[in-house]
Amino acid sequence: MCGIVGYIAKPENSGEASREYFALDVVLEGLRRLEYRGYDSAGVAVYADGAIDWRKKAGKVAKLEEEIAQRPLADSVLGIGHTRWATHGGPSDINSHPHVVAGGKLAVVHNGIIENFAELKTELTELGYNFVSETDTEVAATALAHAFEQERDLTRAMRKVCQRFEGAFTLLGIHADQPDRIVAARRDSPLVIGLGEGENFLGSDVSGFIDYTKQAVEMGNDQVVTITADDIAITDYEGNPAEGKSFHIEWDAAAAKKDGFGSFMEKEIHDQPAAVRDTLFGRFDEQGRLTLDEVHIEESLLKSVDKIIVIACGTAAYAGHVARYAIEHWCRIPTEVELAHEFRYRDPIVTPRTLVVALSQSGETMDTLMAVRHAREQGAKVIAICNTQGSSIPREADAALYTHAGPEIAVASTKAFLAQITATYLLGLYLAQLRGNMFTDEVQMVISELRQMPEKIEAVIDNKAQVAELAKSMQDATSVLFLGRHVGFPVALEGALKLKEIAYLHAEGFAAGELKHGPIALVEEGQPVFVIVPSPRGRDSLHSKVVSNIQEVRARGAITLVIAEEGDTAVEDYANHVIRIPQAPTLMQPLLATVPLQIFACVMAETKGYDVDQPRNLAKSVTVE
Ligand code: F6R
Asked: Do 514 and 586 fall within a single domain?
């Protein structure tokens, strides 16, 4: 939530001869790329001609750009920017960031919440400071300005105020009296540093500067960084030097562009074959054995694990639910899936033999981060499965397994979901291999099935026209239900979530077996019901049970939209519409059956004229609890 960018370069580099861009270009590009983190207002501040100048506006970054076009800012080599998801104070010009105080000398942008802002505001008011906005950020900026008066140094002032601030925050400040630097601080809120030559960058994540450098540095919690054009210096809040962790950014700047698609979501749906392929890539040795070099947890510990808890939120939690079926089946380890925000408040039973798997696309979801800390405090080992380098959750976990889905920009998660399922499957197979639950050839058989999935996902995407037509024909529906059993159940939940979040349509996912225990009462004439049908070649009577469920809702007037394998003729008599997916073993099916549901939601939202990538009230990367 909230995107933050900072940029500083050497003044001598800024002449036309050596540089084609100025701070404003870099900061605005960064804001466009980070807009998915929050989009109710945006602002920039630059230092030029001995003073700070700024523009800020309620609305999207485009509005800010219009404002700047009307009232241009001077060329500059120092700038900060912000795109906001409102917490304290509604989205308005005045509440937007930057907050500029100290008679226009100090500009601050902020992500997070300063929880003790009321107490600080009272103290500062007593000292004679005035406030014009409703935000905690203005209080933080004023506290920083006050500390600067005493310290005459922005870095020392930042360290001092951060010791007083409670809550989670990232802060960036620039001061007209020290225009050679940006000073930033973080606690439980994202910030990464980008390294250039004669220029340096700050961003909420690497997308903020991905166009300019591939070298980045992660900083730890409760640290302050001072960046100048050719140096970075990290310390803790007491001023003790600290080391950042350098990494090479694997994301490609082009991957964060729409590439001719109508929306990022549409593009990311099409990215899914590559997301699965890239997540599988490089994880095997020459004999085809799974290696997972990143999992630096002692093998003896992994062998002694007696319980797995997957913690995650939203779509990532649904990926966890899918994973549970596979992990329990392959490893015979009891596996729980828990919403991260529930986990730590219910006193969970966690021991040193518990393996916690934290699933997060952003690696910054505060609820998941807090759950990771709680699990580690209880002695559990934590493996993070994340998509974003330089983020907090992998940094704080004992080991990290990255999904290689590339940047996910649309707020509604698509390719991350498929990549998370793929990565959890790799982890499950790795544990099964290590603990001897599966023979090597059994593991390899599953891996070969996984390797066929990108092509099969491609085939599902190729069928998008049929799904798009269905979505358009149902745009007047007021509610859509989704049914599935086994791994089809979390797929149903995910299908419903997609529709809620981007098409603002009431949607519910149910375990198909639960139907008769209540939800069937919702079914009336014309009610659209998606049914995810397991493979008829699968185990037990799963398939026939789901076919019976289709009959049950159809008999009550539902319009049934059935997702079934090629060649599954048993569904035809009861389906109003059959959406075909390639044949695949039951555990692989979520990687296919989810895709039509994503397309359905995307087209439905577009047809209704909604902003598919930036749905109302939401922001990607939920960095507050
Ligand atoms: C839904 C969606 C969210 C996220 C959830 C967790 O489309 O994107 O439900 O899945 O906020 O986010 P991460 O995976 O970043 O922890």
From this structure: yes
